[in-house]
């Protein structure tokens, strides 16, 4: 991920207490990421940071839309993302990831770059299966030509009548 200065929060010299920040993650953010699943997006990130002497507790609220590729038809698909995330940043003497939401940064650091965390948080808000939703009539929103081709290429099970006879015997003995 390339350096994106607009997602940095300087914390040196910041008084203890609550501080608020707002970021907009747009197309330029995703375009700079090589081989990204998300091709475009518009996500608003509201950050509330509680700064203490040697620690920062960041509460992030993400909401917006991103464009990914449909898992079924490989066409662009807009998906809404919305949810909270939390990041705790401790000041220490070296870099360390204590857990997925607790980071230790060296005391020589003066700012925290949220870009890699934003990238990860947005991805975590995506559903596991990304397909076009059905329309009001129950028809898939996927490209109909692709669906037709998938149907042509999908294997159709061949029924062997011998198995049917065995299944009938099995059903008789279970009754």
Describe the structure.
The protein has 175 residues and is an alpha+beta fold. The chain has one domain. Helices cover 22% and strands 39% of the residues. It has four helices and eight strands, in the order E-E-H-E-E-E-E-E-E-H-H-H. The strands form two sheets. Strands 2-3-4-5-7-6 form a six-stranded mixed β-sheet. A two-stranded antiparallel ribbon has the order 1-8.
SSE arrangement:
Blueprint: E1 8-10, E2 17-25, H1 27-31, E3 40-51, E4 55-69, E5 76-92, E6 96-99, E7 102-106, E8 111-113, H2 115-124, H3 144-153, H4 161-174
Parallel strand pairs: 5-7
Antiparallel strand pairs: 1-8, 2-3, 3-4, 4-5, 6-7
- Spans with pLDDT under 50 lasting ≥5 residues? none
The structural domain count equals: 1
- Proportion in β-strands: 35-45%
State the helical fraction.
Answer: 10-25%
Tally of DSSP helical segments = 4
- Coarse morphology: elongated
What is the average of the pLDDT values?
88
Q: Spatial order of the strands in the main sheet?
A: 2-3-4-5-7-6
Oligomerization status of the protein chains: single chain
Biggest β-sheet description: 6 strands, mixed
Category from helices, strands and their pairing? alpha+beta
Order of helices and strands: EEHEEEEEEHHH
Rounded to the nearest angstrom, the radius of gyration is 25 Å
Terminus-to-terminus distance:
64 Å
Beta strands, count: 8
The gist of it:
With 175 residues, the chain is of the alpha+beta class. The protein is built from four helices and eight strands.
């Amino acid at each position: 991920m390339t350096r994106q200065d607009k997602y940095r929060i300087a914390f040196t010299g910041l008084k203890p207490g609550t501080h608020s920040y707002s970021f907009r993650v747009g197309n330029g953010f995703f375009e700079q990421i090589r081989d990204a699943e998300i091709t475009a997006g518009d996500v608003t990130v509201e950050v509330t940071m509680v700064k203490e002497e040697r620690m920062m507790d960041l509460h992030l609220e993400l909401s917006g839309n991103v464009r990914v590729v449909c898992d079924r038809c490989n066409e662009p698909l807009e998906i809404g993302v919305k949810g909270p995330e939390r990041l705790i940043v401790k000041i220490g003497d070296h870099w360390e990831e204590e857990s997925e939401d607790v980071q230790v940064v060296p005391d020589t650091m003066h700012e925290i770059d949220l870009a890699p965390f934003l990238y990860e948080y947005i991805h975590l808000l995506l559903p596991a299966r990304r397909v076009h939703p059905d329309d009001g009539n129950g028809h898939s929103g996927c490209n109909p030509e692709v669906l037709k081709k998938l149907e042509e290429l999908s294997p159709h099970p061949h029924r062997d009548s011998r198995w049917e006879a065995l299944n009938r015997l099995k059903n008789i003995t279970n009754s």
